[in-house]
Amino acid sequence: MMSLKTKILLPTGVLMLGLVVGLSALLLNNLVVSNLQNSLRLAELAGQQTKGLLLIRLEESWKTGAADRRLWSSAIAADARLASFLENSVAQAPSLVEISIAGDDNRILVSSTRSNSGSPLRGYQSLRALLALGPFNRIQRVFARGPDYEIRIPIGILDDPRSIFTIQVLVSTVLLRDSLNPGLQWIGAASLTALLVSLLFVSLLAGFISRNLRRISEGIDLIRQGEAVPELPASAPEFAAVQSQLSLLGAQVRDTARTAADFRSRVSAVLERLEEGILLFDPEQRLILSGGASERLLGRSLVGFQVSATSLGPILREAFDQRRSMPERLIEWPGGDGPAPLLVALDFFADGRALIRLRDPEGRRQIESQMGLLSRLDAINRLTGGVAHEVKNPLNSIAARLALLESMVGEDPPEAAEEIKVIGEEVQRLDRVVCTFLDFTRPVEMVLEELDLAGIARDVAALVEPDAARRSIAVHFSSKPECVPLWGDPDLLRQALLNLAVNALDAMPQGGSLSFDVELRAPDVRLTVADTGVGIPEAQRDKIFQLYFTTKQNGSGLGLAMVYRAVQFHGGSIEVESEPGRGTRFRITLPALVKL
Q1: How far is CA 572 from CA 92, 288, 357, 458, 517, in A?
Q2: Is residue 76 within 8 Å of 23, Cβ to Cβ?
Q3: Chain segment 281-316, per-residue pLDDT in tens
Q4: Nearest of 500, 538, 539 to residue 517 by alpha carbon
Q5: Any bridge partners for residue 355, and if so which?
């Protein structure tokens, strides 16, 4: 997708280049027309002067007794002064290459190029016809390596349609192009100057916008940190509107945080008295989240758990068919020591998800971590809706105003490109911040297919290897067997592994080793990503999968949460082992694809 920076710079550059090219083409056409008209005047003047001198010579021949027309051609061909006149005329005109006089038999009698005397008079394209062409064709003809152009002046006797003599004046396109060089250099210098001045002017106009965008970006950073956004002076109504919306958004974020804290407090109070297991299903009745005492109450691992094959299947299907919640009921669940009682309740949500709650009538366990995750997801869903409305609309207004500024670009003042670049970077930064809010809670449509988990891990290892080499980190990959089939979404799994790899690289500032190990242990697949970095303190290990928890200075706190979500979507589990100063090991367990 094209960034806002590119959307601003590309049209501005194209507009400026188009204006400069258009003006340059207009100046070039005017220069060519002016030179052609000047050459035409010189050619016509030389032709008329030659005609006048020719008539004088004919009159002198008449007076000396050469009354026969056949003697006129001989007299003209033998006239050395006439030939000298033609040579001088060509020498004085910069674009004329030849002047010739031909008789009624179309043979040259005398020419400025004496070697052509006696040769047939060749035909050339008319110089007036060249001037009558369109601008593009005219310029193309002048700069092409084509033939010369002519003007002809026929000389005859009254009542005789035939010409006795023909004067031909040739204009050379080579000499004409030479005369255009000074003008072409001036046009090039003027065009380059106009382009530079226009770019500088755009950068000057963008200066005040970049300052306000920087303030807006700082305000969004304060919102992410949960702090109040101070009132900032703005020099344009659009920026004032954005800053006002940011202040309102900051207040909403703080209110949401307080609401979430109250919700967690109430959930904590409930969890003090309850011990439950939870199974969350998406609208396609796929298990996407499990937690609490689910495995203990069901007496089995939930990796590859198929609810349809158990006594919970009819309850889930009934809820989806009737699209309503089911009251708590007591069922008999088969266990290792025989059937055991199990309380089951189902909550059906408006978005099509269903939550099965499992409870042991004789005990309770805490489910605070999973319920806390659900509450945070719900709070973020409400928050991102406000972000999209309160921030995206003013950003669109800014983009529209910048498009208007593009149409105002002129030849001065002389500052623009650098500031336009700053505008693009700051608006792009705003987009990234807003997208950070939206990414995690955006509905995920899984595209399931048969894939090779070893191949995905191998690709991720190859992808991070150049960056790892730059940091003096060795990357290792191993798989047993080489191909490990899996049923899942390749994009989700690839992104999850990439997040783990990036975190591992960041955890080894002094270099080290990063390894990817894939192992098939039917009916499961185990993928281990291990590093030799700084490790994770014990106090932080229970928080690393929480939304927005991060120890990085510029971290978003979404990477490991998205890893956890991807693993849950695939019916798997993830464990972490770490020792400060010796490294961290993430172990992902997913259900293998069973070939029948």
Answers
A1: 94, 9, 19, 20, 17
A2: no
A3: 888 888 887 776 777 777 777 777 777 778 788 888
A4: 500
A5: 280, 347
